[in-house]
Amino acid sequence: MQVDWSIMFDFIPQLIAGSKVTIYITVLGLIGGIILGVIAGLMRAYGNKFLNAIAFTYIELIRGTPIVVQVMFLYFALPVLADIRIDPMSAAVLAIVVNAGAYIAEIVRGAFLSIHKGLTEAGLAIGMPHWQVLLYIVGPLAFRRLIPPLGNQFIVSLKDTSLFIVIGVGELTRTGQEIMAANFRAVEIWTAVAICYLMMTGTMTIALRAVEKRMKIL
Description:
Elements: H1 12-46, H2 49-63, H3 67-82, H4 88-113, H5 117-125, H6 130-160, H7 172-183, H8 186-217
């Protein structure tokens, strides 16, 4: 069978639809992951022994298991253990939230602890509450150091959505598989899928570089 690159254009609408699902899962998952990661990261950096232990257990549990195992646990095991049934899309979003949150937590912890303690002590010395010191003094400086590793995690999470094919989520990889199963044009279809992923990750990289450059100027 000869390779016919023009056939890729016939499936652009389907690939765009699959890409939209991928972006939807990624955006919702990362919003939740950032919130969870910031909370867990601050618990690790500034919490008491109890809070630190909770965050540490969560982080190590999630980082020590593959995301595909996590999503299958949410989708197949959770209904058995807790009688909680969730649809494939919800399981996919929740898996990104939980998985990304663990990695973002360590990024946040490292960024905050990298700021010189003298700044925190100076803020406390002039009578600022600890939360204001973190929000107005340490936070803005730590945020600049968060951007590069955070951008890397965003890209990883976007690509991780391809693993949700195991629970039947109709994201980009699943769409490519369905198209290929109908016409067996593996080279053309998987090349098109790869191009779609490259476009999404490339756009994300450019946006993050712009933010990083802007923060350096400020």
